[in-house]
Design goal:
The chain is of the alpha/beta class. It has 9 helices and 7 strands; from the N terminus they run E-H-E-H-E-E-H-E-H-H-H-E-H-H-H-E.
């Protein structure tokens, strides 16, 4: 499931893209679909990195392109200043204690004028989850903060990025997480949770017009994620 809308950051051959906190590689693989784009992904989770490597290895059999996946901390990125044309950091900062250093690193490795895309859980849907379930936000390695829009905007702009667009995604997913928090956030076998998950999986695969319309209506109201599209300012 993609959170970043790549229509907002058109990729071209020769570009270098970093996915910081790439997980199993959803945005990394989508970037790699563009011929001639070089991609790099970093994460601390070895199991997720293994999945990302597997996906990229399969994709590389059919299309040309260079890729790198490595274990690294977002607060200590192992790349030189200005190494990338695009940097993506999706659903990561809410997990990181030293988020100021992490943001500074994202901007540091981005070329002047390059695109930075940052996504985090949106305040209201996330606040509802926290209110319903203490276990949800006390999960080891889980979310340690809830960002307000202005708070994260100030953090990003203080690091040298300028926001030009904000969008909201996954309106259909917020009620699913509220339901999970109600019945136990790890209770994936609860009948209604299983049914809702199957519905979301069906929607992701099929993309029917009706649910697409529902998502567009719900996104401004209860979209699960907020997405900041930014440019690195020239200094």
């Amino acid at each position: 499931m993609l959170t970043v809308d790549f229509r907002q950051i058109p990729l071209q051959a020769g570009m270098r893209v970093l996915d910081a906190g790439c997980g199993s590689g959803r945005h990394l693989c989508e970037s790699f679909r563009t011929p001639g784009v070089e991609v790099a992904g970093v994460d601390l989770n070895r199991a997720d990195l293994g999945k990302a490597k597997g996906f990229l290895s399969l994709m590389a059999r059919e299309q040309k392109g260079r890729w790198l996946v490595a274990q690294a901390d977002v607060t200590k990125l192992p790349f030189a200043d200005g190494s990338f044309d695009v940097v993506i950091c999706s659903e990561v900062l809410e997990h990181i204690k030293d988020n100021r250093t992490a943001v500074a690193e994202l901007v540091r490795v981005l070329k002047p004028g390059g695109d930075l895309v940052v996504t985090v859980p949106r305040f209201l849907p996330e606040r509802v989850c926290w209110a319903i379930s203490r276990a949800y936000h006390r999960e080891p390695g889980g979310h340690i903060r809830i960002y307000k829009k202005g708070e994260l905007m100030s953090l990003l702009e203080a690091a040298g990025a300028r926001c030009w667009r904000i969008r909201y995604r996954h309106g259909l997913h917020a009620p699913y997480w509220w339901l999970r928090c109600l019945v136990g956030h790890k209770n994936e076998d609860f009948p209604l949770v299983k049914a809702y998950r199957k519905f979301l999986e069906w929607d992701i695969i099929r993309h029917p017009p009706l649910t697409a319309l529902m998502d567009r209506i719900l996104n401004p109201l209860i979209g699960k994620s907020i997405i900041f599209y930014l440019k690195k300012g020239y200094r």
